[in-house]
Specification:
Helices cover 34% and strands 23% of the residues. It has a six-stranded mixed β-sheet, sandwiched between helices.
Amino acid sequence: MTEPLLQLRNLRVTFPGPRGPVQVVHGVSFDLGRERLGIVGESGSGKSLTGRSLLRLLKHPAKVETDRLIFDGIDLNALSEKQMRNIRGARISMVMQDPKFSLNPVMTIGTQIAEALRVHENLPRTEVKTRVRAMLDQVRIDDPDRVMKLYPHEVSGGMGQRVMIAMMLIPQPDVLIADEPTSALDVSVQAQVLDLIDTMIVGNGMALILISHDLELVARYCDRVLVMHRGRVVEELEAGQLHAATHPYTKGLLAAVPRMDETRKVLPVMDRDMEYDQ
């Protein structure tokens, strides 16, 4: 049996609080092959913290503990910070939520994408420029030479998100973590960006972790889904079987989604007093 590309066991994330330590992620475990895995749940369920923990991006005062964090046979917990920087971007990349806050406002688009390549590869300047131009073309940006000279404030939200995707994919990583990659975009642009990510993931044989609060979106683009609530995984199922979920929390989320043929006068809401994670 083939070993999974990524193995995570018993992830715990704790922050200090006025009344003592507060654990916000409780024992999250999963394996990831070269597949598309969705992690869904409400805001505050621990989705983004889980994604950032995989890259060891959470620093003091956060306390991150795992029993096992293995990527392609490498124990990530045993790596120094310098060694971990060779993994981030080059082999595991992460697209953050909003390009307005993720792109450097004083660097041109071309310089930022080139930097993502130069950090991990020693290439001649002409080849770097060629790769950047080709990457912008792959993410369906017209006139790459013009866009390379622009600053982040000069591009739209949809184009900024495509630039972020280009930055993360140009080193050709094995795993892409996409954290709410379309949260700041309108519906039509969301579909374009997600179709783009899907095409590049499948075409390059990469693995994807798609973090989202949108169950319908995850069901469409992923192979498998983890449902998180209050820092715990409460259900795991195939994306195509999402509507056959059995856990009360997952069923509650699905019931609260409005439908195109909506006939209900009032949408159901989650019962906050129910202990869904038990």
